[in-house]
Amino acid sequence: MHKIALIPGDGIGPEIINETVKILKAVEKKFKIQLQLIDGFAGGASIDTYGVPLTEETLALCKECDAILFGAVGGPKWDHLPKELRPEQAILLLRKSLGLYANLRPILLFDTLNDASPIKQEFIGDKLDFLIVRELTGGLYFGKPKGIEKTQDKIRAFDTMEYTYEEIERVTHLAFETARNRRGCLTSVDKANVLETSRLWRSVVCEIATDYPDVKLNHMYVDNCSMQLILNPGQFDVILTENTFGDILSDEASVLTGSIGMLPSASLGDEKPYLYEPIHGSAPDIVGTGKANPIGTILSAAMMLEYSFREKEASTVVKKAVEKALNEGYRTYDIQVGAKKVVSTSQMGDIIEKYIKNL
Ligand code: IPM
Ligand code: MG
């Protein structure tokens, strides 16, 4: 029996999680896997009920589960709150408290969505399939000190970019292992021409590279990488980078696949539970309209089946069902190019569920 904490969060979070629950139930039946789904509050939903973005109880619930499926948090309703009470704190606290230091973001363009990519075919090349490994619990997000100082004549705000040897080492090992199991190429992205943290980053990556002679390593500055992602994305297999660079580059990379709504992610650490979430946000502007794309979350569940439960076959079937829905011409509102039929969030869930049953 696998225990899953379900944290829908805010905005379209509940809608996309609902569809993913349909998928998990279908997988349970088909593969005779037992899943126990337990609901938890986080983000604005938690602020409204408990006054804080993440309660001790929700954190304890997550810790005793085998995996966490997370929707999205945030919205204009909570934008005025002080930083420690903002909905985003929920996901940041979960990542930090659970030691989820490696965030895997696969960037995959399904063949049938080629025309939906804003990049011309000649730049995409034969196939777009790479993985961003983003360090998730260090850097600017968590470095101390951080704050804002107001004196009579000056206002000064500051964040600290900081990395320890160990923080770089563990995520680098994970990236090399991952590259070894893919096409064997690793691009480490930094800003070593300017930043001290990046110089340490590069030297640790070079040191660890000697353990992986079968992986081809190259280094790239982050500004160049943001350009290469558009000019020649096909050159990448695995990109390894620090927290803030990874946040930015993964949003940029996501549009290559047609829509940010398509992309899943897995956040891993040294021990369970791991956390799975789509990379998009809570999209308050389309709440309740049926326009949300559930595929990023459904594919996150597929990653959960693979990484947390070692159910490779079930994971593959979910991915194939998604691909079949797209190949048949079904699209959500965010990807209308090449659509035979634009369907709602729940219709897309139903279609994928049906294909899982029949595959
Ligand atoms: C992401 C998001 C988060 C981040 C926000 C919601 C705190 O943008 O997962 O990429 O910055 O990490
Ligand atoms: Mg982001």
Structural class: alpha/beta
How many H/I helices? 12
Q: What's the overall geometry?
A: globular
Name every ligand kind in the structure: 3-isopropylmalic acid, magnesium ion
Supply the CATH architecture of the largest domain: 3-Layer(aba) Sandwich
Percent in strands? 15-25%
**Name of the CATH first level of the largest domain:** Alpha Beta
Largest sheet, in brief, is:
10 strands, mixed
Beta-strand segment tally: 14
Q: Stretches where pLDDT falls below 50 for ≥5 residues?
A: none
Oligomeric state, counting identical vs distinct chains: single chain
Terminal-residue CA separation: 24 Å
At the fold tier of CATH, the topology name of the largest domain is: Isopropylmalate Dehydrogenase
Please state how the strands of the largest beta sheet are arranged side by side.
2-1-3-12-11-4-5-10-8-9
Q: What Rg, in angstroms, do the CA atoms define?
A: 20 Å
The helix/strand order is EHEHHEHEHEEEHEHEHEHEEHHEEH
List the defining traits of the structure above.
alpha/beta, Isopropylmalate Dehydrogenase, 40% helix, binds 3-isopropylmalic acid, binds magnesium ion
